[in-house]
Write a structure and sequence with these properties.
This protein has one domain (2-109): Lipocalin, CATH 2.40.128. It is globular. It has one helix at 2-32; strands spanning 35-38, 43-47, 52-57, 60-69, 72-76, 83-90, 93-97, 104-109. The chain has an 8-stranded antiparallel beta barrel with strand order 1-2-3-4-5-6-7-8. By secondary structure, the chain is α+β, with helices and mostly antiparallel strands.
């Protein structure tokens, strides 16, 4: 009986973690779709539906793509190499973390008009 109880507890723990991972992936996608992540000075990423990414850096516009994969936000901004980031959120404040780099910190908001 003790072995069955232990297996049931392990099954619940692994099942919960898989469920939490899937829920976080959906949460990232729903929070970012149609929104802009920006440091309000140097850069901004606009996350369009369908995975299109519009980025602005020091006044220069470019396009790329985005997706959520394995609980990370993955950005492909040519000519840079694609990178995936852990997403840390507190209200509107977002950090994109990738070792060993310092995190990109910004505000998640509705897209701003740019000229």
């Amino acid at each position: 009986m003790r072995i069955c109880t232990t297996l049931a507890v392990l099954s619940l723990a692994f099942g919960s973690s898989a469920w939490a991972a899937e829920t976080w992936q959906q949460e990232i996608a729903s929070r970012f779709t149609g929104m802009e992540l920006t440091d309000e000075v140097h850069w901004a990423y606009v996350f369009d539906k369908g995975g299109r990414l519009n980025s602005f850096s020091m006044g220069k516009a470019s396009t790329g793509s985005w997706k959520v994969d394995r609980n990370e936000l993955c950005l492909d901004r040519p000519p840079d190499e694609p990178h995936c980031y852990e997403v840390w959120v507190s209200g509107q404040n977002v950090q994109l973390r990738r070792e060993p780099d310092l995190p990109d910190e910004g505000i998640l908001q509705k897209p701003q008009k740019r000229q």
